[in-house]
Amino acid sequence: MLARILFLVAMLLPCALHAKEAPAEKTGFASRLTIYLAKGAPDACGPGCDRWIAIEGEIDGDASQRIRRFLAGVKDTQRPIYLHSPGGNVEQSYVIGRLLRSRKAVARVGRTIATACAAGTQVDAACLKTKAAGGEVEAELTTYHAMCSSACGYLFLGATSREVAPDAALAVHNSRLVLVFHGHPAPQAVAEYRQRRIANAERDRAAFIAAMGISRELDNLIRTVKFENLHMLTRAELYRFGIDTRAFAEGMWRLEKATPPFISKIAVMKKESGSSFRTMEWRMFCDTRNRVPLMFAGEIDEASVGKSTIMMTADADKDHEAGGFPVRATKYEMWSGSIDPDMVKAIMASHSLHVRRTTPMPDEKVNVTKFDIDLTGLASMRTQLAAACSSVAAKPKGPWPASPGPAIPLPNVTAPPPSAVPSP
User: Is residue 3 predicted with pLDDT exceeding 80?
Assistant: First the structure.
């Protein structure tokens, strides 16, 4: 009888506030999900990788059909897929997520910046036409402030290999049920229908998350986050829920055009005891007096006592070493020093920077942690840094640049970029 009374359209739209308050383009996203092939510089998407698939924009009602047709023509199933989306239609995201699972896709959160659109917004009509023209689009790739929010998260979960860089964000919240009625149904009938649809939606979400091999803790968390809010999954949650199970993760080297400019990299590493992660950052500044200022910053291990040491060597020349005793400031420790031209050359010729951190622990024990930082992309960023440094009119008064606070905490541990969050 209810079917005769009601004629309605009901959809789960986690990003309905975006649609109602402003066009998606005004928040940096196209109002329609876009997929295209991108080609960048050597190693743009990792060692030996210069081609990827970009999926970006709002997940609309026909998105899965376009994604299916597109992927059917891409034979390389291991070409990584980079996602940058505010979410959209949940049901479509389930379909796309299952499609990615069937392809055993590799998915990462990242922003693709088409070279031809560099002067624009990346979502203006001319740029979208370029991306939809077919063929490979010349582009750059960055994980910095990239985001996969709301329904995009379900799409992301479909991949069998998932990576969220430390400077990117995966955000979740509960869905909003939007009902559009024709006629004047009784309030009780509407309430009953709404209740059934919400219950069905919650069962579908729980079933999808379980089918993707993700902990039910994620579903429990989503139920607690109001639609008007977004919860950025912490690194510990990403690990615990089974979304990104890497004990060590890095962002890309990137140029920060500050005064003075610098290049930086963020990394996170799981602590040996417990489930928490430690966030670290490296910065390289403009050449000063034939030396290059280098800075390391990291969260302090609360269990440590006394001063720790940080030492770094490049794999091309292990005789050159930089480091020392970091200075503690609130919850961080920071080391600032400089490296000579020979060590700079060694770093530029290396694949990895070997890091050794020695930390005094209680009972006169010493904890020695060793890990490698990927140097892919650093040489290109250093070239850009040199150009940025030469264009800076005001030079630092002393041999050392001002050392602003580290870029940590990061977007996925606190709050998303303001333009990416729906207003309450």
Answer: no
